[in-house]
Amino acid sequence: MKRMLQSVLTVFVGVSFLLLSGCPKKITPEKKSSKSSNVVQPTPSAELPKPPKPSPPTVDEDSFSGTSTPLNEVEIPPINQDTKSQEEKTSELADVFFDFDQWAPRPIDLPVIEKNVNWVIAHPNQNVQIEGHGDSRGTNEYNLVLGEKRADTVKNSMVSMGVDPSKLNIISYGEERPFCEKDEERCYQENRRAHFRVE
Amino acid sequence: MIGYARVFFIAVGIVLVGSDLPASDVFIGVSKGQFEKIAIGVVPFSASPNEEKERILAESVLKADLLRSQLFKTTVINFVKGNFPMDLTQGLPPKMTQWAQTIQVGAIAWAKLYPADGKWTLEAYGYETAGGNSVIRVKITGNNIRALAHRFSDKLVSYFTGEKGIAETKIAYLSNQTGSKEVTLMDYDGENSIRMTSDQSIILSPRWSFDSTRIGYTSYRHGAPDIYFLDIATGKRRKIFSAKGISLSPAWAPSGEWVAFASTKGGDAEIFKMRPNGDDLKQITFHPAADLSPTWSPTGQEIAFTSDRGGGPQIYIMDAEGGNVRRLTFSGEYNTSPSWSPQGDWVAYACRDQGGFMKLCANRVDGRESIKITEGGNWDDESPSWAPNGREIVFASNRFGVSGIFTIRPDGEGLIRLTTGGGTNTSPAWAPR
A101 and A193 in one domain? Predict the structure, then answer.
């Protein structure tokens, strides 16, 4: 009986471990999915969930050194999960545009930045990447640096409006990832932008 | 210099190839003083009738190389009564010597081409017509006939002018033929292009190592713009520098001991240097503006770079340790992409013109002269990089539509288109040797 209990406990520990670090090699994928669904129930983590029915010992007891293994805690995701895709979230963040050769955002775009700030503050679990872009005029190397300056300036103004700087990452694509490929002013303006991507 | 009327008058049998303008008095970037082109006669090569196509190829590549060297006036010796193939392995026939001297042809080149063991051999001979001495006797063997002719040309250039030829040099550039910019190599005449990377990401600013064995470039293949070195012989690549922000434009010191590059790891773009293995990182510019695109002087004592510390981007020069910063360009609002000439006296760069288009400019390092290499036209000329002999500059231009690779002489003459089609071709870099 003691051995039985030990086996049950071990299975539980094993399953919890699985959630933290992926599937231990000796558990087959089928079992992983069925047991995961058992454990992912929103149960207070301090309580033991109802132990799953002991199945044939697929878990090697030796590898978990018996009852002395401390219990693992697994954070259970909230029920009201945010079901929006990263793309959908990204589309809620509007781009900021720049004048030729400039890296400070146009004053007209300040409300856009403010709106993005509100979004980031309202989504404390989301990190946002700010991409700096430039038009095709000028040289690739300087435009790459210019793109970073643009992203950095936008980041700084968002931080000054209250965003935690660790939520914002920047990357520059210079003139390498244009949104519009024609050689005309409309396109140039469209390409001189800071684009936001939810990470 | 010989007047051409005289050449034609005396030597009915001599055909000049190419439009051979008199040597320009302006040899920008070349410290050579007074200079007169040498007239060289290329005697039709010899090969078996089965190899006529290859023979013509070898001969025409040699003639193109000699003309492009700007050191020779190439002529084809073409006896009207002709008794080909001629055989000059044992020296020049006295009649030819005499005749060549009469029309002031100083050198004769001839070769025979034959296959051997699945390769080609070019048995190449060069003669000084004064005295008829053979000065080049060499068997060149390889798979690629063009390469054999390039070698022959460089040997003639080296012997008759004392200058190192560029016919065997390579040009690296970025081609997006596969959909993303990849590092690609080609011969200096645009032939034999070969793609070296397949990152399928973004690649920027390829630069050659001092010894032309490696190419450094920036790639986003792991998400962020990091610096990689690619070994040409093995195709192996190594990530050399990775940091927060942008890592860009690795420039080898001429000695090979240091690599200067730009990094935004501290927030703004600064110039750093490191050992070619990535060790001994040292920051050499300290300015809150953007400092980027370093290029070494041939002595390794100084570095030219782009900085927008004065507002728009301009070219500056500093000591290799970062001291004594001085501004080189004062004309125009946007000057970038400096390339220091191999002879040391000029820095070429991309300059934005009144119409907002990029063109090529060059300034003397001592600041006494500033010239426009290309002018006019609603297109962009970008990314100048000097040929190792200082007589040409390779650059990217969209003058014929999508961006292609071109060369031009520093005096703005002699435009050559190296790439046609195959997507956009940008960011050329001429191998230093």
Answer: yes
Q: What is the rounded distance in angstroms from the CA atom of residue B246 to the CA atom of residue B184?
A: 22
Residue A102 to chain B, least CA–CA distance (Å): 10
Higher pLDDT, B338 or B24: B338
Q: What is the per-residue DSSP string for A124-159? A: TT--EEEEEE--SSS-HHHHHHHHHHHHHHHHHHHH
CA distance to partner chain A, nearest, from residue B61 (Å)? 34
**pLDDT 10s digits, B180-193:** 999 999 999 999 99
Exposed, middle or buried by CB within 10 Å (0-12, 13-18, 19+), for B254?
Answer: middle
Q: Which of B245, B312, B382 sits opposite A139 (nearest CB)?
A: B382
B118 and B211: one domain?
Answer: no
CA separation for the pair B3, B327 (Å, rounded): 45
Report, as an integer, the average pLDDT of A114-133: 96
Nearest CA in chain B to A151: B245
pTM exceeds 0.90? no
CA dist., res. B362 & res. B415, Å (int): 16
Cβ atoms of residues A187 and A180 within 8 Å: yes
Confidence of residue A88 (pLDDT cuts 50, 70, 90): confident
Is the pLDDT at B8 greater than 80? The verdict is: no
Domain that holds residue A172: 86-198
Q: State whether A48 and A102 are in the same domain.
A: no
Distance CA B44, CA B255 (A): 42
